[in-house]
Amino acid sequence: MTYKETIEYLYNSVPMFQKVGAVAYKEGLYNTVMLDEHFGHPHANYKTVHVAGTNGKGSCSHTIAAILQAQGYKVGLYTSPHLKDFRERIRVNGQCISEDYVVDFVAKERSFFEPLSPSFFELTTALAFKYFSDCKVDIAVIEVGLGGRLDCTNIITPLLSVITNISFDHTQFLGDTLAKIAYEKAGIIKKSVPVVVGESVSETRPVFTAKAEDCGAPLIFAEDEGEVVNTCMAEKGGIDYATKTFGLLHGELGGIYQEKNTETILCSIKQLRKANIDISDDAAHTGFANVSGLTGLLGRWQTVHEHPLVICDTGHNAGGWQYISRQIKLQRCRQTRIVFGMVDDKDIHTVMGMLPRNAVYYFTKADNKRAIDEHEIMRIGTELHLDAACYPDVRSAYTKALNDASADDFIFVGGSSYIVADFLNDCV
Fold first, then answer.
1. pLDDT at position 20, please?
2. Confidence class of residue 27 from pLDDT cuts 50, 70 and 90?
3. Residue 86 contacts by C-beta under 8 Å, 6 or more apart in sequence?
4. Alpha-carbon distance values, 5 to 10, 50, 102, 121, 421 (Å)
């Protein structure tokens, strides 16, 4: 099979959460353990950092990887979902896994995995772990897919566990209270392995404390450390940070929510140093300033056009939109225009309740079975008295927004990772 045929085979033969949602979710680690045993426990051949959380885990994973790369390590990076190409999920020093490796893996191993009927994520995780071993990486940053306790990445024993934050998302799997969700995320905490928690609230802090105590794991709440002393939006984009340990840092990533992520990342770097991972201040500076170039990160308050300014962001739940909405409102422009859509397992009413009232909206849907129909979004928008029209796909919505815009307007594209994926694939 060609690479294209191989990817289509994977999409169509194993359940993929990105495409079909809940039916692709498999609770438990049986398939993962079987795949891991089949490949000879490849994750044991390199060091790992494990990153979970509701929001921010992608930015944190990419930034930690960038810093480690800047130090000179050979770094694996496993994240999800992808935006343009499946291979974005699996990178070594920022370079995507090769098409040939994916094709050869499926051709050689399908006789083993087909009888198992693994999910798409289970199979992809096995592929990533084996690839990192074959590449002889020094260390791999592994992002949890969903939850933590029962996530198939949770077979690793990392140098460090990181939990960015807890908010309501995937409640049908993780629970309908913050404490229940925290319990699932805390499942990545391992015996004697330090854990950094980025943000906590009264409902979640006791859950993390109890789990860490039970595991004898050193627990660091990043928000208590106060590593970031001050922040300032940089004139040419990104954010400048004054820090206790690392001096003045320039962060390439410009979303307001990155301020919280930065606290988490800096505390994580300090813990990795305690684990005898050599990381210089210079490497931290280089990594923060060059995340996208070093790791290929896309879709985090990403500028794709000037005059009009066009920015896309993958934030897709209430926890993320509390920051995105605030940042949109801070943009200086003649008119704000928003291309917006969501998928069916998100709290659309809460998110849409945060949308700026003075914007012009172009409601649409992603090319995805889970996408909420644009007319349903329009119905909610009408109830909120938003100035809006609806469009059948992202391309037509964005084209209309761009045609309507003057050079000093601001266009935001988001509401879902899949909206951003369609945008980057079809419009950029």
1. 45
2. low
3. 7, 10, 102
4. 9, 32, 11, 18, 20
What are the C-alpha distances in Å from 366 to residues 316, 374, 426?
13, 9, 11
Q: Are 79 and 88 in contact (CB under 8 A)?
A: yes
How far apart, in whole angstroms, are the C-alpha atoms of residue 188 and residue 201? 19
In the predicted structure, residue 170 carries a pLDDT above the cut 60? no
d(CA 64, CA 81): 18
pLDDT value at position 21? 45
Contact call for residues 89 and 131 (beta carbons, < 8 A): no
pLDDT digits 0-9 by tens, 331-354: 999 999 999 999 987 789 999 999
What residue ranges define each of the domains in the chain, with the CATH number in brackets?
Answer: 3-295 (3.40.1190.10), 302-426 (3.90.190.20)
Q: What is the pLDDT of residues 223-247, one digit of tens each?
A: 999 999 999 999 888 999 999 999 9
Token readout for 371 is: 């996408």
What is the pTM assigned to this prediction?
0.92
Q: Is the pLDDT of residue 17 over 70?
A: no
The answer to whether the Cα torsion of 43, 47, 53, 58 is positive or negative is negative
